[in-house]
Every structure is written in C-alpha cells, then in structure tokens.
Amino acid sequence: MREEQVAASVLEQNWLSLYGDLNDLYSPKLEERLEWRRLTTFAPNRARPVHNWFYCAQAFSSELVNRLLELFSVSASHTVLDPFCGVGTTLLSCSEKGIRSIGCDIFPLFCFVTKVKCEANYDIEDLKKSVDVIVKTPTNVASEIPKHPLFHRAFSQRALKELLSYRDRILRIGDEKTRDFLLLALLSTVNDVSYIRKAGAHYRFINTNRTGVRHQYGKMKMQERSVVRAFKQKAYNMIGDLESRERNLSKYVFGDSDSAHYQVADVHITDARSMRFLESDTIDVVITSPPYLNRDNYVAQYKLELFLAPPPYGVKEFDEYRTLTFRTLRSHVEAKEQQAYKAGIRIKELDLLVDELRSRELSYRSIPEMVEGYFEDMAVVFGELSRVVKKGGKLAIIVGNVRFGGVHIPVDLLLARIAEDHGFDVEKIVVARYKMNSPQQMKRYGKVPVRESVVVFQK
C-alpha cells in the first residue's frame, strides 16, 4: 500500500473517533446516486435558456430541482421556498412549472439576478429597440468610476469606459423591466471583458502583472473583448430565450393545460436567519443550498457586479460592501458573529472537531471559530424553517463536506443532527458525488474524497 494511502487510512480512523456516533446514527440513511454528480453543479445550466443568463459557480442545476420536485410530488397547489435563493435556480424551475415559489438571499445582487430571470411579460420589441439605441450611442461621455480600487486593475481603460457608459445609459431607461433586463445582460459580460476570473475564495487575474493571487488562469493569454460586442451578443441571446419561452412554455412545460400558467417568483433581500416576511406554517417544500463551509466569499467574488448595480441591489461605498461581507453566513473567515442570531447549540461531535482543528496548523487561525459559527448560524436557519414549514413538509438541503488541516468536517451529518433538534426527521442523505480536496490538503494529508450530498428531511 502506498504511503499516502496508509496516511489517509489513519486519518479516516481518527475522523471516525471524532464523529463516530454521528456516522453510526446516519450511515444507514446514506444512499449513493452518483448519476447526480453533475446535477449539484451549475454545468448543466449552461445549456438551459434563461438559467444561463448569469454564470454562478456556486449554483446547482435546474435538473436537480426538477428531480426533487418530482420526488416530493410537488404540484401547483404547493408553495416552495429557497431561503438561499442565489441566482434563482429553484425559483425559476418552479415558475416554469406553474408552481408558486418564494426566495430570499442576503446578497442583493443575486436577488436582482433572480428577479430578472423569473420576471414575465417582457416587451420583446421594446427590448430589441433599446439594445440598438444603447449600442449606437457614442461612448465619449465620462462616467464616475465605482468606489472600489479593483476597477482600476480589472479592466483596460477602454473597456472600463465602455462598460460604465453603457451602464449609465441603461439606468436612464424609464421602463423598469427593460432597464433591469439590459442591466443584467451587461453585468453578465463583466467576466468576459475584464482581466479577472472568479476562482477559489475570491478572484484571479489573467496573464497580467497586476496584484492578485497566482493561479492556473495566469497561464491564459488575455484577448481583450469589445464590451459593446459582448453586451449586444448577450442581450440578443437573452431576448431569443424569451421568444423561445413564449413559444414553448405551454406546449413543453405545462402540457397544453388550460389551468397552468407561469408563476412569477416572490424574491426578498433578506437574511435566511430571520424570514419575518413569511407567516408560520405556510411552506410545503424547501429546496436550497446554503453557502458551503469552504471559505468561499461570494460577495468578494462578485464585487465588480455588486458595485456596478444600483441600490438596493448594489452598493456605492466600500463600507457598505464590507458591512455586507460581515453580515453573511459564517461560511468564510471574513464573516462576523451577529448578536441578533444566537442558537447556543451543543453537539459533542462538533466540539471535538473544533478542538481538533485548534490543535492543527491552519491557513487561517480563525477557521475553528468559522466552523463553529457556521453551524450556529445554520441552527438559527433551521429554527426559522421549523416555524414556516407545514407539518409533513419536505426539505432538500444540498451541502458539501470539507477538510481543514486534514480534519474532515461531515457537514451533512452535523446539519442532520441540528435539523432533528428542530423537529425534522432525516429521511435520507443522497450522496451525489465525491470531491477531492485542495492541492495543499492532498499533498500534506493524502487524497481523501469528501461527500457532496442532498439531505432530505420531513417535518
């Protein structure tokens, strides 16, 4: 047996000594469905109209939502909630099936994306005319650069001038639906026309000598792309999706049912730890994926788009951005404890894991506090879900396990334990795929895969 395999075997034994009781309790409920391995990723959405309007690496696929809706026998008489709605995959999938859905997210930019994707009754001819007017107007008008230093390094001078000029013109459009639609088209081009790519916990520069973290993207040759060309192509692709949806929604989604109709989702910029906009016992099904406990700060990853979007979906000042980062769920080290949310959980296995983390050499000293805080925050979320979900209601929570300092954190099992304390029964834990660890983890602690799971509950 190779040395790294021996080391991995020893580590696995150590992990089981830390959470062996949890493993014994829930291992009978583990169910492998490795044919779902791509469904927990955004990859299938790249080929799905409307779903692909805004790329989000953290999102799951519409196909996974559709399978869960079928598993739970969801119909038009039910209400579906996604308390971490992100870019709206759950809500849009429900809208396309005529199912009422409600979503919220603390990140306002994602709520904007979801709102635009789930909107109905766009004036397609007006959209086409507006695109033509915007791209034919000269770009020699000076625009105020957003107040974040990254803008000076993320774009060429020409690209930044064009991007800001088109944004300012779009924001002057009177019709809200048209304005928001075209703004989303523009924001969706940021990744293509900038020097950066979203990767890891923040972002990476492409083949430049600008300040950033070295990464495989540094080997790519940057070919500057015209903003007007990227925007026009994106906008017309999106308009084409609307035209296709109008033609095919009734025939292919609703099965020519006269009673079915497209349901516009209800979206709120709200923290999942305090969903006071919802009355108690009103939700039939929850399909969601909370931020993974992997140190990825998605607010930081999408800071360019966030500063380009107008309030309430964007920010103008750096202090607003920093405050938002602090208030997010404690899945990354920049998030701070919020005194308004206290769960006071005490789980033996979690305490043992956190103590073990404190004895390890870690890339960030605050990782043990982050891990402890993440599960405390999720306990508050489950408290809210227990309040709003009807008796007999179903939940599907998509999560990924992680390793820090060689210590395996079984996120799925710990969340199952917390949910049971809030009145939910664990029906099964569907293992969709096994993921490898970071190169640093594998080099030092061996190649030990961790689960990505869909945990299914019933109240």
Q: Choose one word for the global shape.
A: globular
- Sheet/helix structural class: alpha/beta
Low-confidence stretches at least 5 residues in length (pLDDT < 50)? 1-10, 211-218, 254-259
End-to-end C-alpha gap: 46 Å
Q: Report the strand count.
A: 12
The helix tally amounts to: 17
> Major β-sheet, in short?
8 strands, mixed
| pLDDT averaged over residues | 88
Written overview of the protein:
The chain is of the alpha/beta class and 459 residues long. It has a domain at 121-261 and 299-329. Helices cover 43% and strands 15% of the residues. The chain has helices at 3-26, 62-71, 89-96, 108-118, 124-136, 151-154, 157-171, 176-187, 190-193, 227-253, 298-301, 303-308, 318-327, 348-358, 367-388, 411-421, 439-445; strands spanning 30-32, 79-82, 100-105, 196-199, 202-205, 266-269, 283-288, 389-400, 402-404, 407-409, 425-435, 450-458. The strands form three sheets. Strands 1-11-12-8-7-2-3-6 form an eight-stranded mixed sheet, with helices on both faces. The longest helix is centred in the middle third of the chain and has 27 residues, at 227-253. It starts with a helix and ends with a strand. The relative contact order is 0.15. Mean pLDDT is 88; it is low at 1-10, 211-218 and 254-259.
